């Protein structure tokens, strides 16, 4: 399927409850890929937005009582309307508050996908005790751990690192696209989580949508680094390359290994 063309045609409405670090970057990235973003974190409109969106992204960075409440409301409203929900469980295990909210979401909201770094996925699997902050605490991105989380929550898991793992528990793909400069800017994972929104909104097969989203994002980063000089120019170039991305480029440059 030509996901990029389909996103640009449909212009899916992506509702994000995300953190204040990522908010502007994620909104710009969503526009660049062809989606229509809204960011809000008040519980009073979470239900309305959750019900009307084409996809909902719940990101646990800069968590507050309000954001936590809004995420549960938006997630439940989205579930009632069949709107796909993506979770980015930033720093799960790191503090009691965020771990409790994440567990509430996992227990009450059906997720289309979980996108997190390999350390956070290991915490969800029970294989690692805690993530300290937003940065990954482990080097190895183990597909078996991601598969266990996918089965546990009956969802697609996208576990990022040098090689990304995408799995629905049955099918697994490894993606080698991307660039290490993504580690030198903040919220590169948050932007990916938001960008998964439009991909899962236009396809029934959430696994294939996840694979395509991850490859697309990694390719945009690779192309951006052909022009950027460092982290500052990379941020701008990444937005440019998301804007100029095509299905032809994704098919030409993708480094996906399905197994
Ligand atoms: N060592 C690496 N080399 C190349 N790309 C990487 C590397 N580590 C992560 N990435 C890429 O960086 C992006 C963000 O993944 P990462 O695992 O850093 O998420 P994250 O820790 O949640 O990010 P953040 O919390 O800063 O938003 C992904 O596209 C991933 O493929
Ligand atoms: C730095 C930071 N702190 C809370 S959220 C966030 C963005 C990357 O996860
Ligand atoms: Mg993260």
Automatic annotation (TrEMBL):
Pathway(s) per entry: Cofactor biosynthesis; thiamine diphosphate biosynthesis; 4-methyl-5-(2-phosphoethyl)-thiazole from 5-(2-hydroxyethyl)-4-methylthiazole: step 1/1
Superkingdom: Bacteria
Record-linked CDD domains: THZ_kinase
Signal peptide region: none
Keyword vocabulary terms for this entry: ATP-binding, Kinase, Magnesium, Metal-binding, Nucleotide-binding, Thiamine biosynthesis, Transferase
Cofactors (names): Mg(2+)
Gene Ontology MF: a single term: hydroxyethylthiazole kinase activity
Catalytic reaction annotation: 5-(2-hydroxyethyl)-4-methylthiazole + ATP = 4-methyl-5-(2-phosphooxyethyl)-thiazole + ADP + H(+)
Binding site for substrate: 39, 187
E.C. no: 2.7.1.50
Amino-acid positions noted as binding ATP in the UniProt annotation, renumbered to this chain: 115, 160
Entry similarity comment: Belongs to the Thz kinase family.
NCBIfam families: PRK09355.1 (NF006830), thiM (TIGR00694)
Functional note: Catalyzes the phosphorylation of the hydroxyl group of 4-methyl-5-beta-hydroxyethylthiazole (THZ).
Record's protein name: Hydroxyethylthiazole kinase
Species for this entry: Oceanobacillus longus
């Amino acid at each position: 399927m030509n996901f990029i063309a389909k996103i640009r045609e449909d212009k899916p409405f992506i509702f994000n409850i995300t953190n204040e670090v990522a908010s502007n970057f994620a909104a710009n990235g969503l526009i660049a890929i062809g989606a229509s973003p809204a960011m809000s974190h008040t519980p009073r409109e979470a239900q309305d937005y959750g019900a009307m969106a084409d996809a909902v992204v719940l990101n646990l960075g800069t968590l507050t009582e309000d954001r936590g409440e809004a995420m549960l409301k938006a997630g439940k409203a989205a579930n009632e309307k069949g709107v796909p929900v993506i979770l980015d469980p930033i720093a799960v295990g790191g503090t009691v508050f965020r771990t409790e909210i994440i567990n509430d979401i996992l227990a009450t909201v059906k997720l289309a996908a979980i996108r997190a770094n390999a350390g956070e996925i290991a915490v969800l699997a029970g294989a690692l005790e805690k993530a300290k902050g937003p940065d990954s605490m482990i080097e190895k991105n183990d597909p078996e751990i991601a598969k266990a989380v996918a089965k546990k929550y009956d969802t697609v898991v996208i576990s990022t690192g040098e090689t990304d793992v995408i799995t629905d528990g049955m099918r697994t793909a490894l993606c080698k696209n991307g660039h290490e400069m993504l580690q030198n800017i903040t919220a590169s994972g948050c932007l990916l989580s938001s960008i998964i929104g439009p991909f899962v909104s236009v396809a029934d097969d959430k696994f294939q949508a996840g694979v395509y989203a991850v490859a697309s994002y990694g390719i945009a980063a690779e192309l951006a680094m052909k022009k950027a000089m460092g982290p500052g120019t990379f941020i701008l170039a990444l937005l440019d390359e998301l804007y100029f991305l095509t299905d032809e480029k994704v098919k030409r440059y993708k480094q996906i290994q399905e197994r």
